[in-house]
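can u pls check wat happens w/ manganese (II) ion
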Amino acid sequence: MNWHGTHERALAAYVGFAMGDALGATVEFMTREEIAARHGEHRDMVGGGWLKLKPGQVTDDTQMCLALGNAILARGGFDRQAAADAFAAWLRGRPVDVGNAVRRGIQNFMSTGALEMAPGGTGAGNGAAVRVLPVALLHLTDDTAFEQACVAQCRLTHHHPLADAAALALGRILRLLVRGEELAACRREADALVERHPEFCFDPYPGRASGYVVDTVQTVLHHFFTIDSFESCVIRVVNRGEDADTCGALAGMLAGAREGLLALPARWLKKLDPMVWEAARRQVYGLLELARREAEAQGQPAGPRV
Ligand code: MN
Ligand code: MN
């Protein structure tokens, strides 16, 4: 494992995620036609949308990643109870938005203490997969530890094989990118997802970008693999409308990790809520330090401190 550049790629992933969220939220739940009629091509952080956001303001997607990341850093590792407590505190703070399945999951935990939703039901939304970033950075080199934490964090609110599979695949691709591995390895990971669960087939792209995790993952992977610029990738994704902020966040996460900080448009960075930049910077530092220690404990050459 070569740690050179890891910190920068991870920070670009986190900030890219927040940018996709803030840009997409303006057009969340609109159709492509409605977006085209209203914005032409939506490409600037102007806020608004159904949540009436300030320009550069993020939504539940980024907030839940930050809540999970904070819980990990406070404990020095992933702990289901600590993650559930953090989500409950977040919900009690009256967030600007919260998905239905996520609300149900957190309320279930608050009323029963259960750390896992019952299997099936309506758990195939994208609300668990969208939180994969902190556990992917925490367990950057340990596959088994990543898989366990990833599925455990999903099942706090969603318990469905497609939600698990989506989170695992997105997280594995993110880890490859942050570690600086080849794009071909990412493509193999995406193809392996489709082999296991043919529902996720994204080539040819079926064209839906809803909150159903299959639609979300198809949208993210199709645009990630066909557009090689961060800005164009995120713009094209959010202009599909539907669950634009969540799809935009995940596309921004992967494209950011691939292209690094210099690819993030300055005009978006100027608008993005500065607290988000600061929190992402602090979390990336902390999570990668834990990852480096985990690698060291397993006898891998730890490389320079990040
Ligand atoms: Mn959102
Ligand atoms: Mn959304």
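Residues 274-297 form the longest helix (24 residues).
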